Amino acid sequence: MDYLSLIDMDTALSLVRHHIPPLTGRERVSVGAACGRVVCADVAAPYDVPSYPKAQMDGYAVSSTDLYGASDATPVRLSLCGAAHAGDEVRRSVTSGTCVYVATGAAVPDGADAVLMREDAGEGDDTITARAPVLPGQHIMRPGYDIGAGTVLVRRGTRVTPRLVALLAGAGVSEVSCFPRPRVAVFSTGTEVIDPSCPPAYGRTHDANGPQLCAALAALGAVPVPRGIVPDDRASLAAAVASAAGHDAVILSAGVSKGHRDHVLGALSDAGCEVHFHGIAVKPGKPTVFATLSSVPVFGLPGHPVSCYTLFTLLVRPAILALSAMENPLRTACYPLAKRLSVPVGRRQYLPVRIADGKAVPVFRGSGALSSLMDADGFAVLDVLDEYLDEGDVVKVVLLDE
Description:
Layout: H1 9-18, E1 27-30, E2 43-44, E3 54-55, E4 59-62, E5 76-84, E6 98-102, E7 114-117, E8 121-123, E9 127-130, E10 140-141, E11 152-154, H2 162-170, E12 175-178, E13 183-189, E14 193-194, E15 205-206, H3 209-219, E16 223-230, H4 234-243, E17 249-253, H5 264-270, E18 274-278, E19 282-283, E20 289-293, E21 296-301, H6 305-323, E22 332-336, E23 341-342, E24 348-356, E25 359-362, H7 371-374, E26 378-382, E27 388-389, E28 394-399
Parallel strand pairs: 5-6, 13-16, 13-17, 14-15, 17-21, 19-24
Antiparallel strand pairs: 1-12, 2-11, 3-10, 4-6, 4-7, 5-9, 8-9, 18-20, 20-21, 22-28, 23-27, 24-25, 24-26, 26-28
Helix pairs in contact: 1-6, 3-6, 4-5
């Protein structure tokens, strides 16, 4: 493995995917706690929803044949034989010439095949006067209309959302079988790096990458395990990596380039890792490292926050989703450039841009400038042989989806 022997991004992604270990383990999770989890088996509806004929309007359960021709001019009088409210166990039935008051959500009595809306009738003490006809099935949700028993509600590999929680719970599913959430160890490196709780100090930098990576992992449904800040010392870095062997993945930020204090590559070898590549022909993020410790994927990302987040989005995110058995490709769209740009020939550039007035507006202020991320809606993909792109040239933008 040559030091900083550059490969293209597609090759890097292929190598990462090849080294993602197969998923093992299952966990039964209550539906109320399943949001964000990934189901490991199809889930089918155990019952019809609704399980009974359900009134969709406040009104009167009737036989539709009784109201044939009913109108303001020729109203039809029916005997009112009781009421049914949501949750009542209806034991009565409707016969010709009779009706039962039903509230929205109530079970429709036997013998009734329609619900007459309350506003289409006048009510007396024990009769109603119907002023409109009804069609068979009108304002009744039949059993299984919403969901039929046996219908697949969630496919294997689906991440549970709040809407899916409602669907599962409403169908009578109380638990689902899920893949374990991948546990990812996160290290920040650098002797100059200090915790955000510390006051500023000359020559020291608050750690942005650690919290950023942990937040991004949590948003993917993984379990971030912050392991703190490791100084620029090869032995300390090697010990830190080796200590993370029990996790499902490991991420380090900074120390991956060719400076005198960039020891991550050597530390990975010392820890027993197999390095699969060091260097991708992209800007930013050129010195990115990927290795495995036994079967555990290990990522070494650049130290500048913009570079770190860019490579997390493009390279690490797919790996974490694969560990979760989930496909969630990045959203892309095409926009014309708002201004002329110079392009680094020979390397694919991912340029932070804001989308304004239907155009991609560059907002890059340097890989170390946090404001470049705050102002960005996505990364414009500049993968061309020319040295310049003109205003109005259309580029693909990888959209940030948080």
